């Protein structure tokens, strides 16, 4: 296929504009705040994210290339009913704002993993970075793959060149300005997405689709007449022959369990993402973080409408007529690139270029975010917290830069090997749940759910409990939760990994496989095991059934301090030694502004000055005191 020179020039101009905006944003912030050069500035934009930029960057992060391309793909192949990702992610943003954004921002954390390491210690909390990294890599890969497919179809550009060029541009401006560059480029990119898709829809008979759907229930002939000119632009689209059953899709009885669980995977598995919490933690106040989550959820739903309608148009198109018999387009073979094909054959060239810019903008707005988020977690929660706790701010920033390059390279490598965009997008959520083994594959329409279910099964219960049940959580419960959830998930089998079904859950079918929502069951098992084991360990050590010398993970060392203090107070009448519990009680009644976790650390540290005991393993790492 010959290279489309006009389209190539337009995409080069677009990339140069995005790169210039990213560099300008980083330069502007550097001149304005010369003293803010640490990790908080790079990772969280100095916690000074404005309302307008915040809404744009949070919405643009979710509305990526995989989101747009995948939505059109699944509507074309299976119908609107099975296009679950946009609506699931929107609900995830609402619930994230309602239950998680406020507490995380109020605590002043830097990354999603901070509360885990604060509670469980740097090493055990750092284990959760592995599934999180898998999810971020898969998500970035899905984004780059969607962009590569679009550029290949419309421009005739080699897929490898398209993926590597796109990843390089996103990497460069992310390196230059951190979250500032990412946020400001997101503003430009989101406008490109909205304008590009709207214009593409107008020339792709989207209005006719909407009216045809409306006419299914109401006869509005006047509106239909007004839309006749749009029908002339695309003679290959015959909306008269498409029925609600065709564009809407069908859900069979035996698919109800899978369908329901897919939404649960997207909603609950869509919350534990560093790209989301990076923006939450960058806002000025907890209230602002919550509000922006709600608005972004609404925006993501609105921006899903154009690609969904484009998928409906694709289903109503006579592709033999549209391509003049040059291509035999089927859902099985061409579903992945259906959106580029719609732009290529159903719109004028200049409109296809604008649509191409929309897809490119959506892809890059999320690829840069994913690169920065995974690199931030590595630099802070692995490199600094575990290996070099006394590393300087400048040193950690340099580690972030190196990590961005590595993540971009890994994402590009995976992007060049994927088969289904929607599957990879859905799997990126499950990949987070893949725990230590980092099992991250694709599984939606046989290519899209495995990534999402690993976040859902393993990471979501952990995040829920560390935020809303932190007092009783401990490392024993966390480890058992990860192990049980992982084991029960693996026993359910996974054809894409070649894993046989060892445990047949209810309604198992030899041909259709697991029909029971067993991933949800695995998540519940992981959640309950965390609660029960944490309570059991708390009861055993707090009540003295087992000496704290057997507390191998150092979760209850403070209890030994309390016991020692009480014993000394009984033998020495004139001497009073305040234990950590009394310190916390006095703190509650005082007017001190120190947070509960900081005060507990101070009180325990003061006791350590009098007792030659090694610091407990579960103690807060000094890296979190900044």
UniProtKB/TrEMBL annotation:
UniProt xrefs under CDD domains: SLC5sbd_CHT
Transmembrane segment boundaries: 6-27, 48-69, 89-107, 128-155, 161-183, 190-211, 263-282, 294-317, 399-418, 449-467, 479-498, 518-541
Composition bias, Low complexity: 580-590
Residue span of region Disordered: 570-597
Protein family: Belongs to the sodium:solute symporter (SSF) (TC 2.A.21) family.
InterPro entries xref list: Choline_transporter, Na/Glc_symporter_sf, Na/solute_symporter
The protein, known as: High-affinity choline transporter 1
Matching Pfam families: SSF
GO cellular component annotations of the record: plasma membrane
Protein location: Membrane
GO biological-process terms attached to the record: acetylcholine biosynthetic process
Entry keyword set: Glycoprotein, Ion transport, Membrane, Neurotransmitter biosynthesis, Sodium, Sodium transport, Symport, Transmembrane, Transmembrane helix, Transport
Keyword Calcium: no
Membrane topology according to the record: Multi-pass membrane protein
Highest taxon of source: Eukaryota
Gene Ontology MF terms: choline:sodium symporter activity
């Amino acid at each position: 296929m010959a290279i489309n020179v006009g389209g190539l020039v337009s995409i080069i101009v677009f990339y140069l504009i995005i790169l210039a905006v990213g560099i300008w944003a980083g330069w502007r912030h550097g001149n304005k705040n010369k003293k803010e050069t640490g990790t908080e500035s790079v990772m969280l934009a100095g916690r000074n994210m404005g309302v307008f930029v915040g809404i744009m960057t949070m919405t643009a992060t979710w509305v990526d290339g995989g989101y747009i391309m995948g939505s059109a793909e699944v509507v074309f192949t299976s119908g609107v009913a099975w296009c679950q990702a946009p609506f699931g992610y929107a609900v995830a943003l609402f619930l994230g704002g309602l239950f998680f954004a406020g507490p995380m921002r109020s605590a002043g954390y830097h990354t999603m993993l901070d509360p885990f390491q604060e509670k469980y210690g740097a090493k055990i909390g750092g284990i959760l970075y592995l599934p999180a990294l898998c999810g971020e890599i898969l998500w970035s890969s899905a984004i780059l793959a969607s962009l590569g497919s679009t550029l290949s179809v419309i421009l005739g550009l080699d897929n490898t060149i398209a993926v590597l060029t796109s990843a390089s541009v996103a990497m460069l401006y992310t390196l230059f300005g951190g979250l500032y560059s990412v946020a400001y480029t997101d503003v430009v990119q989101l406008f490109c997405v909205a304008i590009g898709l709207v214009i593409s829809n107008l020339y792709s008979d989207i209005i006719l689709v909407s009216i045809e759907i409306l006419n299914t229930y109401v006869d509005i002939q006047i509106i239909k007449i007004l839309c006749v000119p749009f029908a002339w632009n695309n003679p290959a689209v015959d909306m008269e022959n498409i029925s609600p059953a065709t564009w809407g899709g069908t859900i069979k009885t035996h698919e109800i369990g899978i369908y329901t669980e897919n939404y649960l995977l997207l909603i609950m598995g869509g919350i534990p993402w560093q790209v989301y919490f990076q923006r939450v933690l960058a806002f000025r106040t907890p209230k602002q973080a919550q509000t922006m989550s709600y608005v972004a959820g609404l925006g993501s739903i609105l921006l899903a409408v154009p690609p969904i309608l484009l998928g409906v148009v694709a289903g109503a198109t006579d592709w033999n007529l549209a391509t003049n018999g040059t291509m035999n387009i089927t859902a099985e073979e061409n579903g992945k690139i259906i959106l580029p094909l719609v732009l290529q054959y159903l719109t004028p060239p200049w409109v296809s270029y604008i649509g191409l810019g929309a897809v490119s903008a959506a892809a890059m707005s999320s690829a840069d975010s994913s690169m920065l988020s995974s690199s931030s977690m590595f630099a802070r929660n692995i490199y600094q917290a575990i290996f070099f706790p006394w590393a300087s701010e400048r040193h950690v920033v340099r580690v972030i830069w190196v990590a961005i390059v590595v993540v971009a390279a890994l994402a590009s490598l995976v992007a060049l090997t994927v088969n289904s965009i929607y599957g990879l997008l859905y799997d990126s959520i499950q990949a987070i749940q893949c725990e230590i083994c980092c099992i991250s594959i694709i599984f939606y329409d046989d290519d899209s759910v495995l990534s999402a279910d690993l976040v859902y099964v393993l990471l979501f219960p952990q995040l829920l409990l560390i935020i809303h049940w932190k007092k009783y959580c401990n490392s024993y419960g966390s480890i058992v939760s990860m192990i049980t959830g992982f084991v029960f998930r693996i026993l359910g089998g996974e054809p894409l990994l070649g894993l046989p079904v060892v445990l047949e859950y209810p309604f198992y079918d030899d041909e259709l496989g697991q029909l029971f929502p067993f991933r949800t069951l695995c998540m519940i098992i992981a959640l309950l095991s965390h609660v029960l084991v944490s309570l059991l360990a708390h009861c055993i050590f707090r009540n003295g059934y087992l000496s704290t010398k057997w507390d191998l993970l150092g979760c209850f060392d403070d209890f030994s301090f309390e016991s020692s203090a009480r014993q000394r107070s009984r033998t020495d009448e004139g001497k009073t030694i305040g234990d950590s519990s009394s310190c916390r009680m006095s703190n509650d009644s005082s007017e001190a502004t120190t947070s509960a976790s900081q005060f507990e650390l101070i009180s325990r540290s003061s006791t350590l000055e009098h007792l030659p005991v090694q610091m407990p393993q579960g103690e807060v790492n000094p890296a979190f005191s900044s």
